[in-house]
Amino acid sequence: MGTDIGELLKKQSVEISELSHKVVAIDAYNTLYQFLSIIRQRDGTPLKNSRGQTTSHLSGILYRMSSLIENGIKPVFVFDGKPSPLKNQTIEKRISAREIAALKWEEAKEKGLPEDAYMYAQASSRITQEIIDDSKKLLITMGIPWVDAPSEGEAQAAHMVIKGDADYVASQDYDSLLFGAPLVVRNLAITGKRKLPKKNIFVDVKPEVIKLYENLEELKINQSQLVDIALCVGTDYNQGLEKIGPKKALKLIKEYENIENLLKAIGQNIDQLQEIKKIFLNPTVTDNYSLEWKRPDIDSIISFLCEEHDFSKDRVIKACEKLVTINKLGQRTLDQWF
């Protein structure tokens, strides 16, 4: 998802503790996809309650967010709004890819290929309205604010950082940098031991920070040129130019100064180029939001997760203890936190 310019960017590995006291605007859809992809049984089946409803996302929100809060991080979820019509083709391709992956998942299970089954199961993950509604309900009971973006969630999250209402955007994608986010943190929701696909090898995954302005200076380009590079490689709104990867795109944009000059020189075009550039350089965002972290409603959390979704009460209570005790900040009290 998003644009593939990661190899151009310098990333700094950080400890979770270094993000204490920081407000992190979390790309909600990106993070929910991670939870739905990673939190699964051995055959790839997501966690479900007794009624067959998927609960992997709820598990991810409860346990991961309580851990972040325990470390002094103040999360706010930012949900996507209505996508631009220019994204329709990408959305259709993703839907088709998930349907194909779901079929291959069933085939792999029938053939007794657990590694393949798990891989295809991950690729079949999809977010439904029920998943969104339940996620928001759980966030409310946990006292974590959320914002509905008018369009792209990453654009809204970037706007909140630019405005000073948040310190970082949290996303695995790089699009928030195209929207101008000064600081982006990756791997926040998947920190820990992770198994490499089809290999019996586990690696430590740590958060990493990308600083936009330092990267622009190092690459000797400006924000608009970064967007141009992404357009060469391909974004959610265009396929990109043939046989041009990130490094070649960087070289060409620096040589021709902008994508318009490049396209003229090579005799190619990108449909609706200016409209796509406007999405990144002048995105649709809103200031109509309020950020307030509230005391968690423990009884409501237990009722929602344990009574409605069959979670273990003991495990939920332990997670809730992290929400009400911020141990790693010198035993700060709830009043100091909120």
Structure description:
The protein is α/β, with parallel strands linked by helices and 338 residues long. Helices cover 48% and strands 10% of the residues. It contains 15 helices and nine strands. It has a seven-stranded mixed β-sheet with strand order 1-9-6-5-2-3-4, with helices on both faces. It has a two-stranded antiparallel sheet with strand order 7-8. A hairpin with a 6-residue loop joins β7 (192-195) and β8 (202-205). α2 packs parallel to α14 (313-324), α10 (246-256) packs across α11 (259-266) and α13 (298-307) packs antiparallel against α14. The relative contact order is 0.17. Residues 327-337 have low confidence and may be disordered.
Which residues form runs of ≥5 with pLDDT under 50? Answer: 327-337
Percent of residues in helices: 40-55%
Helix count? 15
Q: What is the approximate shape?
A: globular
Strand order of the largest sheet: 1-9-6-5-2-3-4
Strands, count: 9
Radius of gyration: 21 Å
Distance between the termini: 35 Å
Return the structural class.
alpha/beta
Main β-sheet description:
7 strands, mixed
String of helices and strands: EEHHEHHHEHEHEEEEHHHHHHHH
Mean pLDDT: 90
How much of the residues is beta strand, in percent? Answer: 5-15%
